[in-house]
Amino acid sequence: MSLFPVSADKEDQLLQRMEKLGIVETDLEESFLRGGGPGGQKINKTASVVRLRHMPTGLEVRCGRERSQSLNRFLARRELCDKLAALIRGEKTKRRQEREKIRRQKRRRSRRQKAIMLDAKKKHGAKKALRRKPTPDV
After folding, report:
1. Tell me: the pLDDT tens digits for 90-137?
2. What is the 3 state secondary structure string of the chain?
3. Where exactly are the structural domains of the chain?
């Protein structure tokens, strides 16, 4: 019997991955929360958001992507596997890398960096000014 509303192949892949990472169902604490956001009154009344906690590591995942509780259970387990794999390998997750990249882009430059940048712009402008055609003197 199937545990989740996905294909048997996807479910088998998830179970194998959980086994490979050492995640056992008894180590998971699962609770259900009420949803929110778009979806109207129905989504706000039903407990379709899944909160999954892996007791040995303390990792916690919340998933409310879909309206179906059983599908969110599957997605939460998959997300937990991703987090645990990243923790084991010592890698940063893709989402975290993207957040850090945006933070770096938005960060204000130091005074020194700003002065260096402005100096480079002035030099470039002067170089371009030398390329202009000379204006005839009247």
Report:
1. 777 777 888 999 999 999 889 999 999 999 999 999 999 999 988 887
2. CCCCCCCHHHHHHHHHHHHHHCCCHHHEEEEEECCCCCCHHHHHHCCCEEEEEECCCCEEEEECCCCCHHHHHHHHHHHHHHHHHHHHHCCCCHHHHHHHHHHHHHCCCCHHHHHHHHHHHHHHHHHHHHHCCCCCCC
3. 8-93, 102-129
Considering the entire predicted model, what is its pTM?
0.67
Neighbours of 39 (CB within 10 A): 13
pLDDT at 84: 92
Q: Report the alpha-carbon distance of residue 4 to residue 20 in Å, rounded.
A: 19
Looking at CATH, the fold of the domain delimited by 8-93 is given as: Double Stranded RNA Binding Domain (3.30.160)
Q: Looking at the predicted structure, is the pLDDT value of residue 9 above 90? A: yes
CA distance 90 to 109: 29
Q: Beta strand pairing status for 59-63 and 49-54?
A: antiparallel
